[in-house]
Design a protein that fits this description.
The complex is a heterodimer of chains A (268) and B (255).
Chain A: H1 19-43, H2 55-67, H3 70-102, H4 104-119, H5 122-133, H6 137-161, H7 165-173, H8 178-214, H9 221-230, H10 234-262
Chain B: E1 11-22, E2 25-37, E3 42-46, H1 53-61, E4 68-73, E5 76-77, E6 85-88, H2 100-110, H3 115-128, H4 144-157, E7 162-166, H5 174-191, E8 194-198, H6 202-208, E9 211-214, E10 224-227, H7 239-251
Parallel strand pairs in B: 3-8, 3-9, 6-7, 7-8
Antiparallel strand pairs in B: 1-2, 1-4, 4-5, 9-10
Helix pairs in contact in B: 2-3, 2-4, 3-4, 6-7
The chains are: A mainly alpha (268), B alpha/beta (255).
The structure holds adenosine-5'-triphosphate and magnesium ion (MG).
Chain lengths: 268, 255
């Protein structure tokens, strides 16, 4: 028996835009309002354009920077630093997290030292890394890697440990060995938690990237932010900041897309 | 099915004892339990909460080890889990990232059957539990009753001699439960398996079982076996059925 015929069709209230448009507005309306306010406050002179240039000036600076190739180099080197660090953090964090989540003795042995490392701010350690690794690329990539490692590592450990014991037992009752339980139950069950860690790590990587590039770098988006401010090229400074935000959004979008592909079963 | 289904699937419990440690004190749960279950028999296990029904079933499944005594299947003592047994739990325990078809094929795949062959066999049992249209669905898209049927199909797909069920219908609503009881009876008759079913529903026990094992929490009262001598298919409103229920309730001191 169905009750479908009892459902009254949802009628659109006259005057309101169609659902997709409304959904778009309710989601991005505030962003647009914010950008509009920014533009207007500059052009109307509420805030000095020297401090807060209007959006078109910023986009202009961004365009010039990219077209002339000057910013392209910065983007490339920044992506390389963050990418290397993020890649290394993921390559170490996920396997180590899986291991620690699975094997109690390994976790017991490693947990205290990891807690100690984690609680020590990566930025505080940056001078140490510079002393040890020099002021070049290595120390920069390393400090980003350091901070980026923990979100993924901890999320992976957490993900493995919260796998439903009952599912593991089910697999075992069908004769699954340790490796099969791991491959067919523990690993897939941990994927959503791992993605939470990856997204946090990506954000952290970009955060640390800027910090690292503000100290002792002569290239990179973070360097451009500082340098443009120093040279009083305020539109360029904002262009670099905008670029950073865009990079963060893009990284997140890629991870969300990947997550959708890999765990269709867990999302809404 | 195979020719020897009638003779395979015998279960024998020999002086089975099991205690758990509770606050440093041993808590005896099963004491010196011996029982013979015929191949193809349907046995229900009932008893008050905490009397050891799940413990007994887990011992049979090989998920738990007895302190002393043995479980023999077709004359051989068991060592851990075995391919001739399959367990159905109170919750469906489906893997949420697998479709219905993949979940049902899971047991076979774990046992080394190739994906194609495993899914072919899985399809047969999905049809048997009436979910042919839901092969591609994910567990979150199923109702409780449907999910439980997937769990049952998964267990049937490995073609066990012995089906171990721990309150498989306990979480279902009354209507679904009645339908599922019918289905379990049909599946049991069709597949010729030995069925050992833990339940706290006396009517369910009488509806499904050839014999009912009544466990007790009281150390002084041993386990009792009651024959359910009713023709099949059974009718819950029939006089003998009602009388049987009254007798079983009396075992619990209920009227
Ligand atoms: N792993 C365990 N560790 C310690 N004690 C346990 C364990 N498993 C079960 N017990 C104890 O054994 C006794 C029997 O438990 P069991 O789960 O077999 O009961 P049950 O008959 O299935 O009860 P219910 O009808 O509530 O499911 C209980 O007193 C319980 O506390
Ligand atoms: Mg129980």
């Amino acid at each position: 028996m169905t009750l479908q015929h009892l459902d009254t069709p949802v009628r659109r209230i006259r005057g309101l835009p169609a659902p997709p448009v409304r959904a778009f507005l309710s989601r991005y309306g505030l962003v647009f309002a914010f950008l509009a306010l920014w533009q207007v406050s500059g052009t109307l002179g509420w805030i000095s354009p020297a401090v807060l240039p209007p959006l078109d000036a910023i986009l202009g600076a961004l365009w010039t920077g990219i077209a002339s190739g000057a910013l392209v180099d910065d983007i490339a080197i920044s992506l390389q630093r963050a990418g290397l660090a993020f890649g290394a953090a993921v390559a170490l964090g996920i396997p180590l997290g899986l291991l620690m989540g699975q094997l109690r003795p390994v976790e017991c042995a490693l947990d205290p030292i990891l807690q100690l490392f984690r609680q020590t701010s990566a930025l505080a350690l940056y001078p140490v890394f510079i002393l040890l690794l020099g002021l070049g690329e290595t120390s920069k990539v390393f400090v980003i890697f350091w901070a980026t490692l923990f979100p993924t590592l901890l999320a992976t450990i957490g993900g493995v440990k919260q796998v439903d014991r009952k599912l593991i037992e089910m697999a075992e009752s069908y004769g699954a060995g340790r490796l099969q339980v791991f491959r067919r139950v523990v690993l897939p069950a941990s994927v959503p938690a791992i993605f939470v860690g990856l997204r946090l790590s990506a954000t952290t990587a970009l955060l640390l990237l800027i910090a690292a590039e503000m100290i002792g770098a002569n290239k990179g988006i973070g360097f451009q932010v500082m340098n443009a401010q120093y040279n009083f090229q305020i539109p360029l400074m904002f262009a670099a900041i905008l670029l950073m935000a865009g990079l963060g959004l893009a990284a997140n979008a890629v991870l969300v897309l990947l997550q959708r592909r890999l765990c269709r079963w867990s999302l809404d | 099915m195979t020719a020897d289904t009638d003779t395979r699937g015998q279960v024998a419990l020999r002086h089975l004892s099991k205690a758990f440690m509770l606050n440093g004190q041993p808590l005896p749960v099963l004491r010196n339990l011996s029982l013979d279950i015929r191949a193809g028999e349907s046995l229900a296990i009932v008893g008050p909460s905490g009397c050891g029904k799940t413990t007994l079933l887990r011992l049979l499944a090989g998920l738990e080890q007895a302190d002393s005594g043995q479980v023999l299947i077709d004359g051989r003592p068991i060592r851990g889990v075995g391919t001739e047994r399959a367990v159905i739990y109170q919750e469906p325990r489906l893997l949420p990232w697998l479709t219905v078809l993949e979940n049902v094929a899971f047991g076979l795949e774990v046992r080394g059957i190739g994906r194609g062959a495993a899914q072919d066999r899985a399809r047969h049992h999905i049809r048997l539990v009436g979910l042919a249209d839901f092969e591609g669905a994910y567990p979150r898209q199923l109702s409780g009753g449907m999910a439980q049927r997937v769990g049952i199909a998964r267990a049937l797909t490995v073609q066990p001699e012995i089906l171990l069920l721990d309150e498989p219908l306990g979480a279902l609503d009354a209507m679904t439960k009645l339908t599922m009881q019918e289905e379990l009876t049909r599946i049991w008759a069709e597949e010729g398996v030995t069925m050992i079913l833990v339940t706290h529903d006396l009517e369910e026990a009488i509806f499904l079982a050839d014999r009912v094992l009544v466990l007790s929490r009281d150390q002084g009262v041993g386990p009792r076996l009651i024959d359910v001598d009713l023709p099949r298919p059974r009718d819950r409103s029939q006089q003998d059925f009602v009388a049987m229920r009254r007798q079983l309730m009396a075992e619990f001191g209920l009227h």
